[in-house]
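so i finally got all the pieces together for this one. its two components total, 812 residues if u count the protein bits. some of the lines might not be protein, just check the labels. i wanna see the whole assembly predicted at once instead of chain by chain like last time, that was a mess tbh
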Amino acid sequence: MSRAPGAPPALARTAPSSAAAGLRDALHAEWTKLRTAPGTIGLLFAAAALTVAVSAAAAAVTRCPVTGCGQDPARISLTGVYLGQVVVAAAAVLAIGGEYSNGMIRTTLAAMPRRASVLAAKAAVVTGLVLAAGALAILGSLLAGRLILPGHGFTASHGFAPLSLADGPVLRAAAGSVLYLALIALLSLGAATAVRDSAVAIGLVLGLLYLFPIVAAVVSDPHVQRHLQQVAPMTAGLYIQATTGLRSLPLSPWAGLGVLAAWAAGALLIGGLLLRRRDA
Amino acid sequence: MTTPTAAPDRAASRDERSGFRDLLHAEWTKFRTVRGWVTGMVVAALVTVLIGLLAAAGSHTSCNGGPCHFRYPVGPGGEAVTDSFYFVHQPLAGGGSITARVTSLTGLLPTASNGRVRAGQGPQTGMHPGLEAWSKAGIIIKQSTRQGSAYAAMMVTGGHGVRMQYDYTQDVAGLAGAVTAASPLWLRLTRAGDTVTGYDSADGRHWTLVGTATLPGLSSAVQVGLFASSPAYTVTSAQGVLGMSGTGGPTLATGVLDHVSLHGNRPAVGWAGTAVGGGPSAATPVQGGGYHRAGGRFTVTGSGDIAPDVPGGAGPGQTLDHTLAGAFVGLIAVVVVGTMFITAEYRRDLIRTTFAASPRRGLVLAAKAIVIGSVTFAAALVAAVVAVPLSSRLLRDNGNYLYPVTRLAEARMVVGTAAMLAVAAVLALAIGALLRRSAIAVTVVIVAIVLPYLISVTNLLPAGAGQWLLRLAPAAAFSIQQTIPDYPQVSNVCSVGGGCYPLAPWAGFAVLCAWAAAALGLAAFLMRRRDA
C-alpha cells in the first residue's frame, strides 16, 4: 500500500521478465507443495515398488515350454506397469485434487492469478517426479526379468537373448514405458483439474483406461475390435512395450504412445480451459 | 419415554431399534440430498446400459456377406449342443438292450507344427495317430438320428476310461483305464420305459451298474447301435497384446466292437450307417466317418462330439453375460459414490456431528452400508433388467448367435450383477472408512475388482495365474455372470472372454462378500478406536 504511487511504472517495466520469473516461482511453489504434502511422493515410491513386484511376479509365473513360445520377454518383465500406472494416476490426481479438497487451491490461485502457469508448473513438477519414479520402476522390472526369465525357459536355445538396454527394441520398450507413466500422470492431472474432485477423477481415469480393453474383449467384430484398440489410451499406449510381433499390432509402438499423448493433451487442455473459466 | 409396564431391557432394545431406524433415515437423507451422489448412481445405471448396447452394436456376425442364421442344435434341457458322430443303428421298439465288446479305440489328430495346425487339408493327410481325451466309441440308445434328440450312451474314451453319458449334460464315470486288444471292455445299455441303465464289465460275465438315465418322454421307437466321435483338437497360443488365438482341426476316432447283441422287439431291418450332423456345420464338421463290418466285428470311425456346446472354442456365438459388459463401468461409478459416502463426511468434518449424534460408531457404519448397498442394488437392478433384453435383441439383430441359457441362470446373472455392484459399493464404503482418503480408497477398490478381471480378459498373465487371481481377489464376483456351466466332459479352455470363471457363480460372489465383510469389520473396529 505504501508503494502504491510508484507501482504502475515498475510493474510495466518488469512485465516481460516477470512472466518467466512467475513461472519459475510457480514451479518452485509446486515443487515445495508436492515435496512437503504427504501423499504424492510416497505414492510414487509405492508405484515404483509395486511395478517391480508385479513384474517380478509375472516373470516368475511365466514359462516358456520346450516347444517354444510366442511370448515377448520385454512385455512380461514390464507387466507391473499395469498396476504401477494406477498408483501413478492416483498420485497425479492428488497433486491437484488434494488442493481442491482442502481449499488450498484458492490460496494457490490467489497467489498466482495466471492459472495456466499454475497448471503448467504442476504438470512439469509431476512429470519430473513420475519420470524419476518411472525410471526406477522400469529399471527394476527389467532387472527382475533379466534375472528370472532365463530360468523359465527364455534362454538362447529358445531364441531369447537376456534382456538388455543395449538392444534397440528393449531400450524403446523401457524408455517408452517411463514416458507412458508420465503421460498417464498428465492425463490424470488434466482430468482432476477438470472435475475438481480426487475420487471422481480417479474413477474417471481408471474407467477410461479399462473401458476400451474390456469392451474390445466382448465385441465380436474384428474391425471394431481393432479400432477400439487403436484409440484406447491404455491398450494403444502399451504397444510401446512390444518387442516381438510388431507387424500384427494395430498400431506401431510410437504411434500407440502418441494416442495416449493425444488423450493426455486433450485432458490437460480441457482441465486448463475449465480452470481459467470458472471459480476455483 | 418408556411405558411403565415394559421391562427395562425390552424398552432399551426397542429404543435401540428405533434409534437404528432413525440412523438409517438420517443416512438416507444424507444420500438423497447430495446431488453428486444421486447423479453418480444414475450415471452408473446409464453407463451399464449404454456400454452394453455399444458392445452389442459393435458385434456383427455375417455369413458370406449376408445375415447369419446359424443355430446350434438344442438338447432336451434347452442347452446348445454339439451332436455330430457316426452312428451304426437299428430301430428298437419298446424295451430291450444292447451289449458290445470294445477291443480298440484309436484315432488321428491334426499335425501341429510350431503351434500351428496346418489347415485346409483333408482329414487323412497331415494327421498323425493319437486320441483326444474325449474321443469316444461305444453303444448308444437315441430317440432318432435328429441332432439334439435325447440319448443315453456307454462308451470308452481316449483319456477318461468308461463313461455313461446321457442327454448331453450328464456324465458318470465307469471303469478306469484305456481299452486294448489284451484288455477289452464290455458295455451294456438296457431300456425299460423312459429309463436307460448302463453297465460295464471287464469279462462279459460280471457286470457293474454305472448309472441310470431317465430320458423324459422317450418314445417307444428309438434307434440303437454303435457310435464313434472325436472332438476337435484345439491349441491356444500367442497370449498377450492380441489376446488368445486358437487353432485346431477336426480329429477322428475309430472304435472296434464285436460280440454285438441286441435284445428286444425290433423290425427286421439290418444295420444302417448315418453320419449324424453330417451336413455342413460351422462348428464341428464330420469328415471321414463310416463303418466297416466283417463278420461280427464292427469298425466305426467318426468325428465330432455328443456334448453340450460351450463358448470359447472356435465356434461362433456370444454368451449372455456380454450384454452386461457395461456393469464394470457402472461398478467404477458406484465405487466412487460408495467411497465418497463416508470420505466426504471426514473431509467436511460432518463425521464429528454424526458421531456426536449417534455415538455408536459401528451402527453408523452399518446404517451407511445398508443405505448405499440398497440404493446401489436398486439402481443396478434396473440397469441390468433394461440392459439384458435390449442388448441381446441388438446382438441377435446383428446376426450373432446367443447361447441359450436357462431362466434360472439368466435371473441369477441379472440379480447377481446388481448384488455384486451393491457389495462393491459396501466394500468401497468400508475401505473409505479405513483410509479416510477418497482417491486412494477408490483406487484400491477399483484395482481389486476390475484389474484381475481385465488381466484375465486380456490374457495378460499365464492362464493359471490369472485364474488364481479370479479365485482370490474381489474380482471373483464376476463369476456370478457365468450363464453356461463349465462341463467337465468338454475339453475347453475356461476363459473369461468365453464367459467361464474358475469359481462357481455364488462361490465367486461369496469371495467379494467376504472381502466386504472383513473390510467393514476392520473399519468398525478402527472407527471405534481412533478419533473422528
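Chain B has nine helices and 22 strands.
The CA atoms of residues 134 and 491 of chain B lie 7 Å apart.
anyway lmk what u think
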